[in-house]
Amino acid sequence: MAEDVVVETRSLTKVYRDFWGRKKKTALNALDLKIHKGEIFGLLGPNGSGKTTTIKLLLGLLFPTSGDAFVFGEPAAKVEKNERIGYLPEESYLYRFLNAEETLDFYGRLFNIDPDTRKRRAAELIERVGLGADKKRILKEYSKGMRQRIGLAQALINDPELVILDEPTSGLDPLGTRWMKDLILDLKARGKTVLMCSHRLEDVQDVCGRIAILYNGDLQTLGKVSTLVEDALRLEVRASGVKESPELKADLEAVFKKHGGSIETVGHPSSTLEELFLRVIEESRARPGRRYLPPEEATRSTAVPPSSAPVAATTAPAAPPASPPAQQQQQNQGKKNKKKR
Ligand SMILES: Nc1ncnc2c1ncn2[C@@H]1O[C@H](COP(=O)(O)OP(=O)(O)OP(=O)(O)O)[C@@H](O)[C@H]1O
């Protein structure tokens, strides 16, 4: 196995059987997968498609019916390799009557981390996940978002090389979600490998480099997110310093017609709702008591020429004209492209 391959599965298959050994469900069917060091990999699929089964197989909590799974080049059934893995399950199994410090100390002991390192890492992680002010409160009193934060700290207590996150942003508000995504990106920046499952596809698109989509236990697609979502049949042009007008549209139409295409939409690019939400909260904090002003109103009040607002034109091959749903899809795609990575 190549040195930079952290996770590899070869025809990995899991069939659940009932008490009598009769086949109940093929949860995973001949999965071939490689996850490389330092990447954030998303394992996606609808409910019941085999994601948790895959994770359990990688952690050695389940045995495959056939095929192989390797982590760090070792068979997944070898539980010793789990010392190099951090795992945030979808439902965290944390003790409700321990506080944050005690929780991290408890998990540190399970990994046989010496007391000084345990104490130092617990203090660092509590700050990193933003629970400094609540570290003495018992987890029973924590909100869902706070439990997710301590769950993540628990997953990182052994300074793992591979971090497996099952629905890391579930239950988090937009600020918590942004925080979690930044933390996942920070793990990558520190050279860690991240495998995450999530139904929140916006979050996956924001952080994952590559994804696999499972359906009913079968691998349906695998590749780079940017390549998979790219619409190679359309072209997007963004411009600034011009105002939207019928003349502009006619001129653009002529240019694109000359090159065999046609314009689908001309308009202003929009940001995502997440970006708007974060901006409103940021400005409310910075200027308490003042209402948020949308950019064009703020621009007007500071007398910056409105013509600096960018205009986006999206073109497509000349025929056939796009149907309304396709246009909508294209507009959404435009929004996506605008998002920060
Ligand atoms: N212990 C089990 N016995 C029998 N069938 C099981 C068992 N565990 C899971 N399954 C079945 O295997 C299939 C895959 O389940 P799995 O939990 O891996 O899906 P998932 O993609 O993680 O779903 P979700 O998104 O809901 O978490 C499902 O049809 C599920 O019902």
Report the portion of residues in β strands. 25-35%
Radius of gyration: 24 Å
Here the CATH topology of the largest domain equals Rossmann fold
- Termini gap: 30 Å
What are the segments in which pLDDT stays under 50 over at least 5 consecutive residues?
A: 304-308, 319-341
Shape: globular
- Count of alpha and pi helical runs: 11
State the CATH architecture of the largest domain: 3-Layer(aba) Sandwich
CATH class of the largest domain: Alpha Beta
**Total domain modules:** 2
* Strand runs, count: 13
Mean pLDDT: 85
**Proportion of residues in helical segments:** 25-40%
Order of helices and strands: EEEHEEEHHHEHEHEEHEHEHHEH
For the report, how would you describe the main beta sheet?
6 strands, mixed
Bound molecules: adenosine-5'-triphosphate
Structural class: alpha/beta
- How are strands sequenced across the largest beta sheet? 6-7-8-3-9-10
Assign the CATH superfamily of the largest domain.
Answer: P-loop containing nucleotide triphosphate hydrolases
Key terms for this structure?
Rossmann fold; 341 residues; 2 domains; alpha/beta; binds adenosine-5'-triphosphate; 13 strands; 36% helix
Summarize the structure in words:
With 341 residues, the chain is an alpha/beta fold. The protein has two domains: 5-229, Rossmann fold; 235-338, no CATH class. Helix content is 36%, strand content 25%. It is built from eleven helices and 13 strands. The protein is globular, with a radius of gyration of 24 Å. It starts with a strand and ends with a helix. Keywords: ATP-binding, Nucleotide-binding, Transport. Residues 288-341 are annotated as: Disordered. This is ABC transporter domain-containing protein.
